[in-house]
Amino acid sequence: LDSVRSSPLKQFFFTFDQEYDGERNSEGERHGRGKAYLPNGDTYDGEYKHGFRSGQGTYRFRNGACYTGEYLQNKKHGQGIFFYPDGSKYEGDWVNDQRHGYGEYTYANGDIYTGEWFNHNRHGQGTYVYKDTGSKYVGGWVNGNQEGEAELIHLNHRFKGKFLNGNPVGHGKYVFDIGCEQHGEYVRSEQVK
């Protein structure tokens, strides 16, 4: 123990080994399969390459969140599932620690978005289902907002047209299940305060 105390390098590995149980390469880096106990209370159980979380693994956050999936150089990258502390869940593609690609997000209130993601935002084509009403929005998204050509489908009618910042805009039509249609144009009116 005295020789361990006298050498800073040995002291580092002594402390380090208490926080990590797993395989190492010849350079002493975490490499292969292992489990880490982080100082903030989080844990990681999975694959390492040259000291970084890389490959399949499960990261459990002290606050109750949990990610199971692929890593590349300590970042969520590839396919994975993230369970959030509020009960919501994302399952899909990750790039550089961001929801990016295609995935499904189930919100804490039961709403579900399935579609394209870009830099952690709903972006591209996707479907949002409102749990309380059963209504769904099918169409374009830009930076998390409903935007572009889309269809808003309700229980007995639907609106087909363009959206901007989550609101209908311009030419569109209502189609009712009884067979009639109403064509028109949405024009935003200014609210009087």
Instruction: Please report the distance between the alpha carbons of the first and last residues.
Output: 76 Å
Instruction: Name the overall outline.
Output: elongated
Radius of gyration: 25 Å
Q: What is the SS-derived class?
A: mainly beta
Salient structural properties:
15-stranded antiparallel β-sheet, repeat, mainly beta, disordered N terminus, 193 residues, single chain, elongated, 61% strand, cell projection, MORN
Description:
- The chain has 193 residues and is mainly β.
- The longest helix is centred in the first third of the chain and has 12 residues, at 8-19.
- Strand 1 (20-24) and strand 2 form a beta hairpin.
- Residues 1-17 have low confidence and may be disordered.
- The relative contact order is 0.06.
- Helices cover 9% and strands 61% of the residues.
- It has helices at 2-6, 8-19, and strands spanning 20-24, 30-37, 43-49, 52-60, 66-72, 75-83, 89-95, 98-106, 112-118, 121-129, 136-142, 145-153, 157-164, 167-176, 181-186.
- The protein has a 15-stranded antiparallel β-sheet.
- It is built from 2 helices and 15 strands.
Report a brief summary of the structure.
It is elongated, with a radius of gyration of 25 Å. The chain contains two helices and 15 strands. It has 193 residues and is mainly β.
Provide the fold topology:
Elements: H1 2-6, H2 8-19, E1 20-24, E2 30-37, E3 43-49, E4 52-60, E5 66-72, E6 75-83, E7 89-95, E8 98-106, E9 112-118, E10 121-129, E11 136-142, E12 145-153, E13 157-164, E14 167-176, E15 181-186
